[in-house]
Design goal:
This protein is α/β, with parallel strands linked by helices and about 475 residues long. Helices cover about 45% and strands about 15% of the residues.
Length: about 475
């Protein structure tokens, strides 16, 4: 090439333009600064021979001053255990259509298998770009192999993380030992809530019960008028009973469960004694039948779906029963299912549930496609992808303003009930996560002894405190 050093500026421009036209680049950009220095640049993102040169994606934590556009074309490897694959596939199809330079390779696992496979993959050579986490149980185990959200959230335009439910974000931060946010909460769950047979309750001319007194009145009436029908079914398994107990406790003391597990309050304090007393009163008054404590697993839901019970007490994970697709697929006998909060027990208290930020989306340290991965996570958590995966109702989306379309539900009561569950889960006080060892060895048996009337609330609370202190 001609030596440019001795030529004037105009001559340099002409020579540089001719050089670029002779080359194989389709586009070029020559900056004034480059011209002044006598340097040529046919294109900031041009080509070398026939091989395209992709714009580099900055490393995690590098500040660019503006959101990045995914370079593409790339394939993102996405592993997870939830939500169900059908909904995720719909969301991914929509994402790929909106982002033609990015393809997503989805692989789903059972939760038990995933807990073993994910740490191994993150330690090995598997080049994963997006991973789902069971937030309470998996975050601490793999956090040191994930990129903090703060390092990559700005690779997507807009303050999208601020669109997430604040409670879900705080619970996700709390799941990490250092309080850092390592995943973006996708959806939450909570319990206990109450599902009901819409047609049967309507035939009785009764509204959904707001208080235990309302529920007691319906139960007594049902026993007389339809003696073969179970008024309320629920699981007698310790985990479900613990969930019910702290739903009752949360009506008066929303953070009691967290306070107990953190050691901030004693298990035999007045709050716990009050909660155990209210819990036992449900069985003493016949609002909940002690005979139902023998029910296990899916049996309570089976009875309810078959029309053999008016109410079902369970977690928000039973919300698929509210959807039209579920009724069509499962051929449910009960045509219309509604839902609402578990009734308040004591005067002056409020409906409550404990909540869990259930599923989070994270980017592994080894990902080489951080901007593209961030784009996918934004799409699935606050973007258009939420409506695609959330339709099965297994999770309450963390997107704060999200509301489900009416067409998803089998009945208007289902839509209203799901909206009530959404609000409850988002406002939840304590985490719906027990100390599993304490629950299995001590707490579960004590709670069931109270329900069966075998011990008083005070004695039960004293035993819980004694065993907790011994275990600590």
């Amino acid at each position: 090439m001609t030596d440019l050093a001795g030529l004037n500026l105009v001559s340099r421009v002409v020579i540089l333009l001719e050089a670029c036209m002779r080359g194989r680049a389709r586009t070029f950009a020559v900056t004034t600064a480059a011209l002044a220095l006598g340097l040529s640049a046919c294109s900031a993102g041009g080509t070398t021979g026939d091989q395209p040169v992709r714009q580099a994606v900055p490393e995690a934590g590098e500040k660019t001053g503006k959101p990045e556009k995914p370079a593409g074309p790339v394939t993102l490897k996405y592993w997870t255990f939830a939500p169900p694959a059908d909904g995720l596939k719909r969301a991914i199809t929509a994402f790929e259509q909106a982002n033609p330079g990015i393809e997503v390779e989805l692989r789903t696992f059972t939760e038990a298998d995933y807990r073993e496979r994910l740490p191994e993959a993150l330690d090995g050579d598997e080049a994963l770009d997006v991973v789902g986490l069971q937030i309470p149980t998996m975050t601490r185990a793999v956090a040191n192999r994930l990129r903090p959200v703060e390092d990559w959230k700005d690779k997507v335009s807009g303050g999208w993380v601020e669109e997430l439910d604040e409670g879900a974000v705080k619970r996700t931060e709390k799941a990490a030992k250092d309080g850092e946010l390592y995943s973006v909460p996708m959806g939450s769950s909570g319990g206990a809530v109450m599902y009901y047979n819409v047609n049967l309750l309507s035939e009785l001319g009764e509204p959904f019960p707001e208080t235990a007194a309302d529920l007691e009145s319906i139960v007594m009436r049902l026993k007389k008028e339809i003696p073969g029908l179970r008024p309320v079914v629920f699981s007698g398994e310790p985990r479900r009973q613990e969930e019910l107990l702290f739903t009752v406790a949360g009506q008066s003391h929303p953070t009691l469960s967290d306070d107990l597990l953190a050691g901030d309050k004693p298990w035999n304090g007045p709050e716990m004694v009050s909660a155990l007393t209210a819990y036992r009163s449900l069985f003493d008054r016949g609002v909940l039948a002690r005979s139902a404590l023998t029910l296990k697993g899916d049996r309570p839901a089976e009875l309810f779906r078959a029309g053999k019970a008016l109410f079902l007490v369970d977690g928000s994970g039973r919300s698929p029963m509210l959807s039209a697709s579920y009724h069509k697929k499962e051929k449910v006998t009960v045509k219309k299912v509604g839902a609402g909060p578990f009734p308040t027990i004591l005067p002056g208290t409020e409906h409550a549930v404990r909540s869990t930020a259930e599923v989070g989306l994270a980017i592994p340290e080894k990902s080489k496609h951080v901007a593209e991965a961030a784009t996918l996570i934004e799409f699935l958590t606050t973007g258009d992808g939420v409506s695609s995966w959330a339709g099965d109702l297994t999770l309450v989306p963390s997107h704060e303003d999200f509301r489900m379309e009416s067409s998803v539900f089998a009945a208007p009561e289902g839509k209203d009930g799901y909206a009530a569950i959404q609000d409850l889960v988002r406002e939840g006080g304590s985490q719906n996560v027990p100390d599993e060892v304490f629950l299995e060895r001590v707490e579960g048996d004590v709670i069931l002894d109270v329900a069966r009337g075998r011990t008083t609330a005070k004695k039960a609370a004293d035993r819980l405190q004694k065993e907790w202190a011994r275990g600590q």
